[in-house]
Specification:
This protein has about 210 residues and is an alpha/beta fold. It has a single domain, classed as 3-Layer(aba) Sandwich (Rossmann fold). The protein is about 30% helix and about 25% strand. The chain has 6 helices and 9 strands; from the N terminus they run E-E-E-H-E-E-H-E-H-H-H-E-H-E-E. Strands 6-7-8-3-9 form a 5-stranded parallel sheet, sandwiched between helices. The protein has a 4-stranded antiparallel sheet with strand order 2-1-4-5, with helices on one face. A hairpin with a 2-residue loop joins strand 4 and strand 5. Helix 5 runs parallel beside helix 6. The longest helix has 16 residues. It is globular, with a radius of gyration of 17 Å.
Length: about 210
């Protein structure tokens, strides 16, 4: 019986434009198991668009994304089951509590976790005592910490995250670094659009320019 290919993300000669403006072209990179790669570039250079192209939320004009050695388009369901995507907005519903937001985000991915695991994750990110508060009563940084709890609980092999440190204080940024290190130690991989220096440092930096 053939052995399944290990997780690996490859982007090959991606290009994308909006109208007459070229956002980026001929962008190629790879992300291996246990690595994270940083997307860097000035505002408006297309980092978010590139991340969305990789995640399958936006179509590139040309180029190809491959997962575990196979084109994503050959089996998109397999890739989507392996990816956790988070945009630059927190994606939180104001009328739901922190716990409800977390449970809802996991349910959308088909991830089932017990009450003890949910409470432990909320405790790790500092929200256990605020878990029943409506999200509208949380600060921007606390709302971001709901997303950190999601990272702690979702088993996705590949993280595609857009500016994950937005609104986080120093303690929150350190917590994210620990979660990232844990993810990589387990054999996960990540592609992060970020202007921040992180520990562990990226395996590679992809600089986006038209």
């Amino acid at each position: 019986m053939p052995t399944a290919a290990p997780p690996r993300l490859e982007a090959r000669s991606l290009a994308c434009s909006r109208g007459v403006a070229t956002l980026f072209r001929d962008v190629s990179f790879r992300v291996e198991r246990g690595e994270w790669v940083a997307l860097r570039g000035p505002n408006g250079s297309g980092k978010t668009t590139l991340l969305r192209c990789v995640a399958g939320l936006t179509h590139a004009d040309v180029g190809e994304v491959r997962w575990a050695g196979e084109p994503v388009r050959a089996d998109p369901a397999r890739f989507h089951a392996a990816i956790l995507y988070a945009g630059h907005l927190a994606g939180i519903k104001d009328d739901l509590s922190a716990e409800e937001n977390l449970r809802g985000a996991l349910a959308l991915r088909g991830v089932q976790r017990g009450n003890a695991e949910i409470l432990a994750a909320l405790g790790e990110v500092g929200l256990e005592k605020r878990r029943h508060l409506p999200a509208r009563r949380l600060s921007a940084g606390q709302r971001r910490r709901i997303g950190l709890a999601r990272l702690a609980l979702d088993p996705a092999a590949f993280w595609a995250l857009d500016e994950p440190l937005t609104a986080l204080d120093d303690a929150g940024q350190a917590l994210f670094s620990r979660l990232l290190a844990r993810h990589l130690e387990r054999g996960g991989l990540a592609l992060l659009a970020t202007h921040h220096d992180l520990d562990p440092p990226p395996a590679r930096v992809v600089r986006i320019a038209p």
